Amino acid sequence: MSKLKVIDSIEEMQEISANWSEEVGFVPTMGYLHEGHLSLVKAAKENCKIVVVSIYVNPSQFAPNEDLDTYPRDFDRDKKLLEELEVDYLFFPKDSDMYPQNYKTWVNVNDLTKGLCGKSRPTHFQGVTTVVSKLINIVNPNKMFMGEKDFQQITVLKRMVEDLNFRVKIIGCDIVREKDGLAMSSRNKNLKSEDREKALSLSRSIKLAKNLFRDGEIESRIIKEKIWELINSSGAKVDYVEIVDPVTLEDVEKVDEKSRVILAAYVGSVRLIDNGNLE
Amino acid sequence: MSKLKVIDSIEEMQEISANWSEEVGFVPTMGYLHEGHLSLVKAAKENCKIVVVSIYVNPSQFAPNEDLDTYPRDFDRDKKLLEELEVDYLFFPKDSDMYPQNYKTWVNVNDLTKGLCGKSRPTHFQGVTTVVSKLINIVNPNKMFMGEKDFQQITVLKRMVEDLNFRVKIIGCDIVREKDGLAMSSRNKNLKSEDREKALSLSRSIKLAKNLFRDGEIESRIIKEKIWELINSSGAKVDYVEIVDPVTLEDVEKVDEKSRVILAAYVGSVRLIDNGNLE
Fold it and tell me: Which residues of B touch A164 (CB under 8 A)?
């Protein structure tokens, strides 16, 4: 069993990654690991000889009014989970190293970042694309494993990697769900127990859309209306519900099996997201 | 004598650069090579085992009203010059590969790109930082050699490389001048012969500033006034004259020997730049 090495220095990580001798799989996370993250780590272990996981709650992807301060953290528990999965390196950088004074550079992906989560979180994706660019340059991986729960994020990052000619290949992995259907999220910890039922309206919405489509409904407008109804009547509050082309993220009027239902809702003060195709 | 390999495919260049066995020096250019470029190539040859030069007239750093169409080009001549200097690889990509349909990603460096050339060319540096990010990812060099004639450019790119944790080190090389003092530039070719004298007002301005400082003048305002006078009385037309801190590019009121005089002027329809410290 290989021993997990915890690296908190960018310089040290770059020295190690300068001359990887074997294929490297990378799983970038914000920590507070759940089964969803662990499924990415397992995929990386299956595909690559060396596995690097990063834990970094990236401040630049949170707006001032968002939940940076309450974002759950538990480094010791995370470390133990990664040791059990025989991860090789845990990269755990400091804010002052990632964004030193006089930091000035931002990576932006146009269009794809404007709608969906980008509408209610207009500076979010700039933070994501920038930190992932930095992490790719620091970790120098061959493959990067990301969950499809953040469907817009993975679409934006695939575009960025292709546009900027990064060498890494992004591998999208299926959403992992609790037994009751709730998509795994570190933010689920912040749900009050009485709000669980409301939170389930998100995954039920995806199922509803699949059922409607299977029964012949192809009008995006009608499917979205029924999802709004389902979520808001549960006591959760819709942020957005869209049905989009999975590559361009543009709204579709008539759906097909590849169309992606993407939605976000507030359950109490917790903002949750979910998505799925109509197959 | 090694044989120059011309590579026009991004994919092929990335395959070659995936596992460089020795230190690689890179000189990104827009072609129409002059002694300034060649001095960079020579520096790369002296410092690195493998030398890659790129020739790419990057459309995204030209605004619609600028001189993309008249930017001088002579591939065969450039190739011959690089062969003579025993360059290993000439990377010569196509627009349709560098910016395919649906291209959406841009790298921006804040603040440093706002003043100086950024004022009259507000989209220029976004094009430069983006294409250089791409070229770094494609060529995977250890060192990148750039001329200090584009002083703001090199300052912006150093910031970008540090901020995004690119592994390359940028080496700034001295401005190379014609015998009469004119800073080497591919654009000099577009100068009419009767405008040569006007063009010399730029390098004379740098000398004037050095002389004024040596004689005790430390008021930035006064040095700039005298440069405006010199350039405009020559028949050239000042775009800007600034004296700045060489790292932050912020205006200085009282100059010292490290302060950088940076200026741009139109000579006929040709826009030229020059700069120097006050040592």
Answer: 105, 107, 130, 133-134, 137
